[in-house]
Amino acid sequence: MAAFVGLCRVTLAVPGSTSLKDKRRVLRSILDRLRQRYALAVAEVGSQDAWQRADIAFACVSSEAGRCEAILAECVRWLETRSDIELLEVDTEIL
What we know:
It contains two helices and four strands. It has a four-stranded antiparallel β-sheet with strand order 2-3-1-4, with helices on one face. It is 38% helix and 37% strand. The radius of gyration is 13 Å and the shape is elongated. It has a single domain, classed as TT1725-like (Alpha-Beta Plaits). By secondary structure, the chain is an alpha+beta fold.
């Protein structure tokens, strides 16, 4: 049986952030929601010292490549609805 891994790396702007503490509060909300709602592995993977920028990655596993694509696309759509961030870059890959 084949297994597919969907991986998405997203660069975010957090324009309302005035400190790392502000950014962490916003990111904690995002990461927790992605973990709970979509059962993904999620982490901040870059720009840890920047106040208004964040790089996060999330991954899912499925027996169908199309299911991985659908889950990741739904997560990106959800991120686009948030008013406290802006998506700067999205890179998705199915392995």
